[in-house]
Amino acid sequence: MTKEKLLKIKRIFLDFRKYSLFNTIYFNFHYLPFKQAIFLPIWITYRNYCLFKGRLVIESDKIYSGMIKMGAINYCFNRPKGVAFVNRGGILKFRGSCFIGNDSIIEIGEKAILDIGTGFGMTCSELKCYKRITIGKYCAVGKKSRITDTDSHVFKNLKNNTVSVATQEIILGDNNWLGFRTLVLKGTHSCNDVIVSAYSVLTKRTEFVDKCIVSGNPATIVGVGYYRDPFDEDPKDHED
Q1: Is the peptide bond before 230 cis (omega within 30 degrees of 0)?
Q2: What does DSSP assign to residue 43?
Q3: Is 70 buried (19+), middle (13-18) or exposed (0-12) by CB count in 10 A?
């Protein structure tokens, strides 16, 4: 065995100390086909809460140990609470590496599809999917943010006797960077290489172009020709 392979095994072992071996083995072999589960691609911590009635799918040409991490501490000084992971019958699809940090919530409706591109990362934030949310490659979500494709209720218009639509699909392009406390509402369709300023609100009325900065409530374009290079930060977090 070469020195490089030994160093790689050592890094994996040191990294895995933050996770639960029992929870990891159970989760992988319970939700994944054997040919994928044997690699333990999903690492789970001790404090996660799981209510999983739907399907979990990994669509990637490369399956490796720890490619999807859920619940570990990620530069957070608060006591970690793991991930609240609730699937009421929908589909959670991963297309590559992913990091879901502590204090995060993932909620998927009965017939919903949450499709997460490779290189995705978030901590202390929420994904609520009751129709369909598609997230492109190398997207990053700032703390205390929320992405939801549902209003969780409907309202009636007395003038024309109509009822509102509670859910609308969300599509986030590749390399979107959502700042601290960003709110992404139903119907939002963004472009590639979008930077969203902190405390911004994205809706179906928000206009986007490739390589732009949006800000405000509701968000508007405040700069064009800007983008974040995810590989300049920490390339090991974006392995395919």
Answers
A1: no
A2: E
A3: buried
d(CA 28, CA 66): 11
Taking only the tens place, the pLDDT of each residue in 162-214 is 787 889 999 999 999 999 999 999 999 999 999 999 999 999 999 999 999 99
Q: State the Cα–Cα distance between residues 65 and 25, nearest whole angstrom.
A: 11
Q: Which residue has the tokens 């996770």?
A: 19
Element at 23 (helix H, strand E) = helix 21-31
Which parts of 136-197 are beta strand (E)? 140-141, 146-148, 156-157, 162-163, 170-172, 177-178, 183-184, 194-196
Q: Global pTM?
A: 0.86
CB atoms within 10 A of CB 177: 19
Long-range contacts, 124-129 (Cβ 8 Å, 24+): 124/76, 129/90
CA distances from 228 to 1, 8, 130, 175, 217 (A): 38, 28, 29, 7, 22
H or E segment at 221?
Answer: strand 219-224
What pLDDT digit, counting tens, does each position of 131-164 carry?
999 999 999 999 999 999 999 887 788 788 878 7
In degrees, rounded to 5, the angle at the alpha carbon of residue 114 between the alpha carbons of residues 112 and 120 is 170
Q: How far is CA 110 from CA 90, 100, 125, 130, in A?
A: 5, 22, 21, 7
pLDDT at 53 over 80: yes
